[in-house]
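Q: Fold this one first, please.
A: Sequence and structure below.
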Amino acid sequence: MSFKTLGAVCALSIATVGAAWAEYPERAINMVIPYGAGGATDISARTIAEPLGAAVGKPLVMANVTGAGGATGSVAVQNAKPDGYTMLFARVGSHSVNPAMKATLPYTLDDFRFVTVYEINPFACVVSTNSDIMSMEDALAAAQGDGLSFSSSGVGSGPHLAATMVLDAFGLEDAANAAIHIPQQGGGAAATAVLNGTADFLCTNTSALVGFVSNGQMRPLLVTTADPVAGFDAPTATSLGHPELEQMVGWTGIAGPADLPDDVAAKWGDWMSAAAGDAEFVEKMEARGSIIRVMSPEEANTFIRAQYETFRKLVDDLGMRIEG
């Protein structure tokens, strides 16, 4: 073997060893939150950030990339290099409701690889404590009378569909159009709209509302569960004769671009199991009414697609499909 050939072989060997040593992650990971500060997604993401960062062993750079009911941030991750350095906090609105409602959405579920769902939470419907609305019957009467407005985190978001679904269940004719929808840029802004009187009514995840309810700023009228939710002194959907509303739940998961490698996805599975088992994280999230349940990539994919099919049927039944 010539010295030139030997040198080439050695160089190749060194490069191969170097590649083996370069294990993911080598640097900080960008974590996209597709909704604004103060909403359910933002709260969940920032609560798990510390234990998740400890499990990853590298900094997590949290960024709220808002707009279009979660679509703007989702597209940013869809178009990112599938190397695991740009990941998304996927949410029921961005990856179940949005695909079900919007015909022109610039992505489908197939454009992402879900590595987990780790949080499930029910919805609650609330008004300001300054409101004259004391019950769902009062809300329905307002909608049928002088008018009822409701806020949401955006057109095609979970709160948009939830409020319409609840009002329809309680008998409001043409619920998709009879109540006045006032979309906002994120869940925090949707809650603020109710607090300042811009909107009358809001249906969203308990995790985004528990602080306002506990400090007396908001009055819960309903929780979309069979059993009562701690901290929410309100009747359940089932107790009011509407068990069909139990299918309206929120969830938070993590996804990367569709071509995310198997080894990267597997690492996220390990990290999420460790992070979601952190006692302080679990305590904080359960205090907000959330249920912590870590799903494998396969379980998460099955769950999210079932949610999509459920909401697609609801959208068709309510005539809420957005074609333009």
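Q: Good. Now the second chain.
A: Here it is, same layout.
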Amino acid sequence: MKATGIIVEHNPFHNGHLYHIKESRKKTAADIIIAVMSGNFLQRGEPALVNKWTRTEMALKAGVDIVIELPYVFATAQASDFARGSIDLLEAIGCDDFCFGSEEGSIEPFAHSYEVITTHQEDYQNSIKQYMKLGLSYPKALNEAYTEITSNSEINFVDLSKPNNILGYHYLEAAYQINAHIKPVTIQRVVANYHDDVEHSQSIASATGIRKAIFDDGSIEALANFMPQTSLEHLLNWKDSIGVFGSWQQFWPLLRFTIIRSSVKELATYAEVTEGIEHLIYEAAKKCETFEEFMACVKSKRYTWTRIQRMLTHIYTGFTWEALHSHKKPTYIRVLGMTHNGQKYLNHKKKNLSLPLVSRVAAIKDSLLDLDIHASDLYHLGLQSNKIKQPAGSDYRNPPIII
């Protein structure tokens, strides 16, 4: 059985994701689609709209055969580490290809860019440092340095100012660096760009636009054109049963308490908190009543919104620099859900997998897995509402979903 991997957050699952699955299957002639999916906290440093179990079921009902969890350490990391953890897992579960959406739509420019960056690595890194000394954020410094080494060439390089191209480049980089068997494939991202608002004349909207519409308008039914009916039903059921969606606005009271309860010295021990920003975070938390006010206080040219949110995620979950440096690679494959076809694939492959397959978290003891369980408990704590109380231990109670 030929397997193709995709790297997803599905926050929430929409028609663009459905297109990605169908095109990935078609372009690679895959029998099986395996999604490595972030858990309850995401790469942009924010809580997921709905939990990983709901998002898993959305994916399985829309054509994914197996969903495995990208551990917290990698799911909330900068792009290169996010990509490395994802590719490691897709390689470990035996995928033949991985397929990602990009603004570029062709794989050759990614390969050319990897080659030129690798060839000029020393100059590239020195240039990044110089731009950062001028006060640029890391992503902007990266792009300026990249422009320097590619501007005088006739070769077609990928545009690394585009968000999906950036992630795609890091996927390719990760596969090349581990000399992976898995082969990269890309498809053109269609209609909606990464940050676009919902456009009701279209059938595809970005996940960012959909989330914004949910929080601004509150009407999930109005989003019916942008997602499969099964995804819409899951969102409606979530709203009816839980009453609130995951966001920093919802989590702000607990996050604020966590920051103020900590000493400034303690804040500096959390992953990605650097260069004295802990002082600003502490003072802003004391005086700001809302998350929006807080972000307005701490946002600067040097730190992107995403970078600050990742710091806050790690503060909220208690994830330290020490813990970050202790986990370099995935140590298990955790199955969140599968179809019967996916089950057949795993039964056929499980004796030859390079990492242990985990379906019940109580069955193994692993410090990387402990971080996921801890993060899930804190995620559900942040969703406490008048409608429902979220008990801890959901990772122990929920077996893999089978459809």
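Q: Anything worth noting on the second one?
A: The longest helix spans residues 367-382.
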